[in-house]
Amino acid sequence: MMKKTRITPLFACLLALALTCLPMLAGVTTVKVAFDSTATMLMGNTKGLRVEIVEDRGSQGYLLNTGDTLTALIEIARRGDADTVDLGNNRIQINKTLTLQAFDPGAYELPPLRYVTGHGDTVLSNTLTLDVRAVEVDTTKGILPYRPPVAIDTKLLDHLPDKMARYAWLYIAIIVLALLAAIALWLYYRWRKNGKLGPRKKLPPPYDEAKAALARLRSRSLWQHNRVKEYYSGLSDILRRYVERRFGFGAVEMTSSEIAQALGENEEARPAQHLLNNVMQTADLVKFAKMMPVAFENEQAITDAERFVELTKPVEKPKENEAEEKDKDRGKEEVAK
Questions:
Q1: Residue 163 shares a structural domain with residue 235
Q2: How many domains does the chain have?
Q3: Model confidence, pTM
């Protein structure tokens, strides 16, 4: 028969108390601070303050000292990144360095750092004293003059705002591409206008150009070699260009009837208009109706074209100065007589 074990009330209370306090003892958070060297520094210099926090893993605590000063005269110049070390048994150590700086000499007692644990408890660190010493000044020497400004080598990018300097090469590339595109566009329009990229060649007068073109067309003997359509196309193109340059309207892009109507309103062209009309009508019939004129008609067409150009040749007007000089010469001759 098994013997029953009795648990006394006192033992039960002690066991419950131990179970309650055990996790609390295991989860104690400690915060320690220490200087990275001696506790003294010259005014204006910096001093590193090491912070060591030991806590349970995953506690998610944080420091309450988040400002840029520890006291009214002790500044936090820089906050280093935190470094975590695994201590085992679900414990970690967080190492962090605060860089302190002071500009007034004196002995300063640093207040404890306050750390809030993941359970909401606030833990205080130990306190330290920082001795800030003044810079020794040799009073036996006179006051030295200000040093002249230091010349610094600068580049063009140094004069630009940071945002522009960051993408300076991109802006330069865009500007260069825009300039190249503008040059290419200018060259293209120049080529379209002049037929080549070089300087525009001075054109001969409309009369001289038309006479030379008709002479070249006659010398090719196109209709004699059964190239009638090419012959009349060339004849039409020569007359259209001559009319456009001679009378100043867009004959190249106009129909034959439109050209005839425009010439009918011009006093210089009206007497010879019938010659042009005959040539243009025959050319249209050959090109569009596939008419085959006889040899006499082919020869008559170029003859009418030459007569039209001759009859509409511009008449040069004498210059006023020349007329005045002639009058003066005549006056002198009469006086001499």
A1: no
A2: 3
A3: 0.41
